[in-house]
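To close the section, here is one more complete example, presented without commentary so you can practise reading it yourself. The ligand is adenosine-5'-triphosphate.
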Amino acid sequence: MVTDDTDLLRIVELGKSYRSRERNVDALAGITLSVRDGEFVAVVGPSGCGKTTLLKIVAGLLPASTGEVFLAGRPVTEPPADLGVVFQEYGRSLFAWKTVRQNVELPLRHRGLGRAQRRELVAEALDAVGLAQAAQAYPWQLSGGMQQRVAIARAIAYRPRLLLMDEPFSAVDAQTRGDLEDLLATLWRRYAMTVLFVTHDIDEAVYLGQRVVVLGAAPSGIVAQFPIDLPAVRDQIGTRSAARFGELRAQVYAQVRRTPEPTSPQPHEVTTR
Ligand SMILES: Nc1ncnc2c1ncn2[C@@H]1O[C@H](COP(=O)(O)OP(=O)(O)OP(=O)(O)O)[C@@H](O)[C@H]1O
Ligand SMILES: [Mg+2]
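Output:
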């Protein structure tokens, strides 16, 4: 296969089947996808198509059945050091008995960084997400949107080269969601990260992504990809009301709708706003 030196992430012919005594589930089949260093790629697809499975394999948390994943040219066989992950269920991903500061600091401790360096990175990350004042609070004292900002701060604290996000904003209200989307876009630019962002919200994928990848129903492969030729810096009102945004949204939507329904339909899953 031809490789491009500017690719940070390469997913090659990736397949995943879950096998147990009760049932076998073929989740992914032949996913091949490269992500350039610094690129923001949004992945959309119907419920159960394997989006979370894909992210878990890329994160080194789950073994592939077939194919391979390379990060900066090295095969991913365990969670790589320069990776940040934000999952959907932020409530469960934060430790209730630890303060905001301690939650953000935890992965840095595991990396063996010294105290002074940890403090500096935590302070900068909390400042970047606008939570410097809440460092001593506990997660349960914060709103849902603030908790999600803590999860983002934790992921960016050690400056990951690759940030994986699995429907990170689906549990917050529309206004907060817009704010978090814009915060993420700002951080992506500031830290020159590469982002692989999974969502079932087509508008969100088009709003954030430089490229949108559409997965088909399981066992899924990539059914379409769209370069998003909107202006680099976007804003909630101007971008979303632009004619080009509407065209792109319609093109992506048509591809998502073309995919057959999953075997156990969850009709709320593919949404547009
Ligand atoms: N640990 C597991 N064991 C067995 N099957 C699994 C496991 N995890 C996921 N699956 C199955 O693999 C398929 C893909 O699941 P996955 O969670 O990756 O989908 P998804 O696209 O993230 O869905 P959603 O949009 O609902 O989050 C589903 O059929 C699911 O039931
Ligand atoms: Mg999922």
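Once you have examined the tokens, check your reading against these statements. The pocket of magnesium ion (ligand 2) is lined by residues 51-52, 166 (CB under 6 Å). The domain at 1-82+161-273 is CATH 3.40.50.300 (Rossmann fold).
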